[in-house]
Design a protein that fits this description.
The complex is a heterodimer. Chain A is mostly beta strands. Chain A has no helices and 9 strands. Chain B is 0% helix and 52% strand. Classes of the chains: A mainly beta, B mainly beta.
């Protein structure tokens, strides 16, 4: 069981919007930054969002992040078939003195 | 640009050790930590640990302590991860990633190294 909880899968039609939640606790999300990673099939993870809601250069503004209390959320608008991937949230857990990832969410663009 | 280039795939027998390298370029090696993350087939991401190339400080995931070593060579800007007493459930793709801030985020990642443990 992962320390951070994500839905195993989400789906939506092309052009639509989807959100992926990441639930934690005060020892991790509640007191540290959340980041999000996209893993396309057969490739290494790629940073999508850092410091809760910031996008690295080159990441389109269709991707957004937010944090409230002990939960983080990734939003993707204008879905494209190329967005089909696994998405992971992550943060540092102060109690465990370790980085923790969510279990991952598989996005299907129908 | 910043790049992390990992060594090639390995096949090991149970009980053996494996050492994976991660050669970095495009930035000052000692200014960022390096973390290792692994992913078993069909599974999620598992953080293994971290090393500071600046002073050699390390921190490992509790389930790997005693079996994992992380080192760096500042002369070649390369990080290494060695895992000992390999078991079949260590079969995974192993990634290195540059760590930003105080364990704030990882970017970029290496391409991954497949380690297969099989008799």
């Amino acid at each position: 069981q992962s320390v951070l909880t994500q839905p195993p899968s989400v789906s939506a039609a092309p052009g639509q919007k989807v959100t992926i939640s990441c639930s934690g606790s005060s020892s991790n999300i509640g007191n540290n930054y959340v980041s999000w990673y996209q893993q396309l099939p057969g490739t290494a993870p790629k940073l999508l969002i850092y410091e809760n809601n910031k996008r690295p250069s080159g990441i389109p503004d269709r991707f957004s992040g937010s944090k409230s209390g002990t939960s983080g959320t990734l939003g993707i608008t204008g879905l494209q078939t190329g967005d089909e991937a696994d998405y992971y949230c992550g943060t540092y857990d102060t109690s465990l003195s370790a980085w923790v990832f969510g279990g991952g969410t598989k996005l299907t663009v129908l | 640009q910043v790049q992390l280039e990992q060594s090639g795939a390995e096949v090991k027998k149970p009980g053996a050790s494996v050492k994976v390298s991660c050669k970095t370029s495009g930035y000052t090696f000692t200014s960022y930590g390096v973390s290792w993350v692994r992913q078993a087939p069909g599974q999620g991401l598992e953080w293994m640990g971290w090393i500071s190339p600046y002073n050699g400080n390390t921190n490992f995931a509790q389930n790997l302590r005693g079996r994992v070593t992380m080192t760096t060579d500042t002369s070649t800007s390369t990080a290494y991860m060695e895992l000992r007493s390999l078991r079949s459930d260590d079969t995974a793709v192993y990634y290195c990633a540059r760590l930003h801030g105080d364990f704030d985020w990882f970017d970029p990642w290496g391409q991954g190294t497949l380690v297969t443990v099989s008799s």
